[in-house]
Design brief:
Length: about 400
C-alpha cells in the first residue's frame, strides 16, 4: 500500500453536453476569375469571415459574383461561420458544376470537406456571349442542373454524407407562361432561388448565398422564411431585375410553382422569404428544406449510434433471435443520441426493434425509427368582428 494521500476523482458527463454539430456548415460553388498568387480556380478554400475576401484578393470589380455572394453569406450567417468556397471558370455551366462525374466541382467540394458540409449553394454569372435557352422561362441550364444535383446528393446520402442544395433561377424572363415548376419535379434535395440581391451588369443575380447564410445560421427545424428571424434584405429584386412590388401580380403563381423569392409584410420593413420549398410536390415528405435538414441530421445520428456495433458478437436466445434486453439496449442507443442532439428540433421520436428477428441466420438487425417533426405555421386565419352584449340580454 502506498503512502496515504487525498485522492480526488473527477466525474464526467454530468452536464449533459453534446458535441457541436455540422448543421450549418456550408459550401459555395461560383463562377469567377483566378487571382494571381492568391486564388486558384478549381481549388477549395475554407472561409471564416468577410476578411477572407481581402486575404484572397477578391474585389467587387474583378470578381463581382464571388464578392457579392461571400459578403451576403456572412451578412446572414455572421463572421466565424464555416464556408467552403470553390471558384470555377466563368464559362462553366451549372450542370457541369453539379455533374456526377468524378472530379466535378460539386464532388470535389464535398469530398474536400470530408463529411462536414450540410448545405451547398451554386451560382453563376452568365458571360456576355452566353446564349440561354429560355423556353421554360428560366435558363435551361438550371433545369438540367437540378436533376444533376439531385443525383449527386442522393449518392452522398447513401454514403451517410447528406446535404441539401440551393441553385439560382437565373435569367428568368419575367413571365409565368411555360415556366418550369419546381413543385412538379422530384428533386427534394434541391431548391431554386428566384430572389435576387444585386444587379451585376444586366443580370439580376439570384441571392443564393444570402439564403444559404440564413439557413446556416438557424436550427435545422426552422424555416428560412421564419418572420421572427427578421428581414433577409432591405432591398432586392426577382431574377427578372424587377422588384417584388413591380412583379406583385405574379408572386402567388411563383410561390405555387415552388420558387424561393422575396416578399413583404404590411408594417414591416425589408424583404422576407416566402417559404423554404424544394423542387418536389407538397405530397413529398421532404418538400421543405427544414424537414429535409431534420431527416439529414437524424441520418448522421443513427449512423453514429450504431456504427460501433458492426461485426460485434451478440447474444441470441434459443430461437436464434435477439433477447428483449438487447432490443432495449439498441433502442436506447438511438433514443439517447436523438434526445441529446435534437430534443428542441423535433416533436417526438420513437425507436422500435422487433425481437422476432433471426439474427443467427441473417446477421441483420432491422431498426424502425419514427420522427414527429415540429409544425410550421404557414398561414394564420383570424375571425374578427364586433359584439354587442346588450343583444344577449
Amino acid at each position: 500500500m502506498g503512502m496515504g494521500n487525498v485522492n480526488i476523482r473527477l466525474e464526467n458527463g454530468a452536464l449533459g453536453r453534446v458535441a457541436s454539430t455540422d448543421d450549418g456548415v456550408a459550401g459555395l460553388i461560383l463562377t469567377g476569375k483566378a487571382v494571381p498568387d492568391k486564388l486558384e480556380l478549381n481549388r477549395v478554400y475554407l472561409f471564416n469571415s468577410t476578411r477572407d475576401l481581402t486575404t484572397y484578393g477578391i474585389t467587387e470589380a474583378e470578381n463581382p459574383l464571388l464578392y457579392k455572394e461571400v459578403a451576403a453569406f456572412y451578412e446572414q450567417a455572421g463572421d466565424g461561420a464555416e464556408l467552403y468556397v470553390l471558384v470555377v471558370s466563368e464559362a462553366t455551366t451549372l450542370t457541369q458544376m453539379c455533374s456526377s462525374e468524378d472530379g466535378s466541382p460539386l464532388k470535389k467540394l464535398i469530398n474536400y470537406a470530408a463529411g462536414r458540409i450540410r448545405l451547398v449553394g451554386v451560382n453563376k454569372l452568365p458571360p456576355a456571349e452566353y446564349e440561354a435557352d429560355l423556353s421554360q422561362g428560366i435558363d435551361g441550364d438550371v433545369v438540367t442542373a437540378v436533376a444533376a444535383a439531385q443525383n449527386v446528393t442522393a449518392a452522398y446520402q447513401a454514403k451517410i454524407n447528406p446535404f441539401r442544395m440551393l441553385l439560382p433561377a437565373v435569367l428568368w424572363n419575367g413571365s409565368t407562361e411555360n415556366l418550369f415548376k419546381p413543385r412538379e419535379g422530384s428533386y427534394n434535395r434541391v431548391g431554386l432561388v428566384l430572389a435576387a440581391d444585386k444587379m451585376i451588369g444586366e443580370t439580376a443575380s439570384p441571392a443564393v448565398a444570402r439564403v444559404l447564410g440564413r439557413a446556416a445560421k438557424i436550427a435545422v427545424n426552422y424555416s428560412i422564411a421564419r418572420v421572427k428571424d427578421g428581414a433577409i434584405a432591405t432591398t432586392g429584386f426577382l431574377a427578372d431585375g424587377k422588384t417584388p412590388e413591380e412583379d406583385a401580380g405574379m408572386l402567388d403563381a411563383l410561390h405555387d410553382a415552388g420558387y424561393i423569392l422575396y416578399r413583404t409584410f404590411v408594417g414591416k420593413n425589408g424583404y422576407y422569404l416566402n417559404d423554404d420549398c424544394m423542387a418536389a410536390p407538397l405530397t413529398d415528405d421532404y418538400s421543405s428544406l427544414n424537414l429535409g435538414r431534420v431527416i439529414d441530421k437524424a441520418i448522421v445520428i443513427a449512423y453514429g449510434a450504431y456504427v460501433d456495433e458492426l461485426q460485434d458478437s451478440i447474444e441470441v436466445d434459443d430461437n436464434g433471435q435477439l433477447p428483449q434486453h438487447l432490443c432495449s439496449y439498441f433502442e436506447g442507443n438511438m433514443e439517447n443520441a436523438v434526445a441529446a442532439s435534437m430534443k428542441d428540433e423535433i416533436g417526438n421520436f420513437e425507436c422500435f426493434i422487433d425481437p422476432k428477428q433471426n439474427i443467427l441466420s441473417t446477421g441483420v438487425l432491422q431498426v424502425s425509427c419514427k420522427i414527429v417533426p415540429r409544425g410550421i405555421l404557414k398561414e394564420i386565419n383570424v375571425t374578427l368582428g364586433f359584439d354587442n352584449p346588450a343583444l344577449k340580454a
